[in-house]
Amino acid sequence: MLNDLEIYSTLDMLNNAHLDVRTVTLGISLFDCVSDDLERFKSNIKKKIRFYAKDLVQICNRTGEKYGIEVVNKRISISPVAVAAAPFQENEMVEIAKTLDEAAREVGVDFIGGFSALVEKGMTNSDRALIRSIPEALSSTQRVCASINVASTREGINMDAVNLMAKTIKQAAHKSADKDGLACAKICVFSNIPPDIPFMAGAYLGIGEPDAVINVGVSGPGVVKNEIEAALKNKEHGLDLGRIAELIKTTACKVTRVGELIGREVASELKIPFGVCDLSLAPTPTVGDSVGEIFQSLGLESIGLPGSTALLAMLNDAVKKGGAFASSHVGGLSGAFIPVSEDLNIAKAAELGLLTIEKLEAMTCVCSVGLDMVAIPGDTSEEVLAGIIADEMAIGMINNKTTATRIIPVPGKGPGEQAFFGGLLGHAAIIDVKNRTGKNNFVKLGGRIPAPIHSLKN
Length: 458
Known about the structure:
By secondary structure, this protein is of the alpha/beta class. The protein has helices at residues 4-16, 38-53, 56-67, 81-84, 90-107, 125-139, 159-175, 221-233, 241-270, 291-297, 308-326, 344-351, 357-363, 382-399, 441-444; strands at residues 20-28, 71-78, 111-113, 117-118, 144-152, 156-158, 187-191, 212-219, 274-281, 335-336, 370-377, 403-410, 418-420, 427-429, 448-449.
C-alpha cells in the first residue's frame, strides 16, 4: 500500500515529470491460425487480431483518463511468424507482413511486433524465408517490426544467421534509402531474447505464453532525473551514490506500481490475463524525458565520458531492484535504454563526438538493450556490420543477459551527417565505424560459436 506522501509524490511525477505508461502491448498467439493455404492463414490472422484487439485502444484511453495517466502507445505482439507461417516462402512472407500491417491499422495500434525468428542454434527453411523477406516486408509496411534471435548463453552464436542479418539490414536500408534507411529502425537482432517484451521493435509473443495477454511498458527517465535533482538541490544529509541508488530504486518502485495498475485494469476490461510490467527507462526525443540528462544531473558533462559505464550500471541495477520490489511480475527488458536517435541528449553527445560506437558497446555490457538506434555510414560493409553484431551478441552470451542491435546504415551519408527518422524514432548524427569498408574474414567463416562453459547449469 502507498502512504499519503508516496501518493503525493506520484501525483507530482504525473504532473511535472513526464510519467506515463509508455505502451500497453496485447500479445496474441497465432498458432491456432495455422494453415498451409496462404489466403486462409491471412484470413485467420485478421479474424483473431480483430477479435482480441478491437477494443484495445478505446479501453486504454478510457483507463488512462480514469486515472489521469496517459497510455502513449497501444501495440500488438504476436507469435514468431517464422513458426506460425512455416509452410510459406519468401514472397508469401511479404504478403503476411502486409496482412499484419493492415490488421494493425484497422484496430488502431501504432506497431505490431513478431515478424520474428529464433535461430540461435540453426535455421529452418521458414526462418530463412522470413529473414530474406524482411527488406521488402518492412519497407512496404508502416507498423510491422521484426526481431531475430541469433544467440543465447545456452546455445552460443549462430554466425551464419549473423551474416545473413547483416546482409538483410543492408538490403533493408537500400530499400528505404529515401527515408534514411528507416526500415532498419524496425529490425532488432537479439541475444537471449525474452518471450514477453512489450517494447518495439523487439516485441513478440514467445512460445509458452498464453493465447492472449497484456504486457505493460512503463518508462520514467524524466521522473528519475527530477527526483535526483530535487535531492541535490535540497542538499540532503549524507547524499552519496549509495543514497542516490536508493532514491532511484524507490522511484522505480512507484513507477512500476502505476504501470501495473493500468495493465491489470486493461487486462480485466479485455477479459484476458495480465502478464508483466516492463519498467524500462526508455527515453523519447522530448526535452526532459532523457536518460542522457540523468548523467548530467549526477555530475557528468555528457554521456560517453569516463564514468558513464559505472553510472549506467548503478542506474540499471537500481531500476531493476525497485521494479522487482513493486511487482511479482516484472519482465521484458526492465532497465535503462540508451537508444541514440530517440534521446536528444544522447544524440547530441554522438554529434559532438563524445559518444563513440566503442563506448556505446562498453556501456551495453550493463544496460538492458544494446546498440540501439545507432546510425552508421551507409558504405559500411556487410562483413564489418556482421562483426559489430557478433561483438554485441558475445556480450549477451557471455554475461547471460539480453542484448541486441538496432543499427541503421544510412544510405548515401557519412560520419557526422544527420539521419532523420521522424516521430518517436527521432534523429541522430551518423557515428563513424573504424575500417568500415574493409573485410572481415573472421565472420565469413560462419558456423556456430559454442556456448560458454557456464551454460552447463544442470
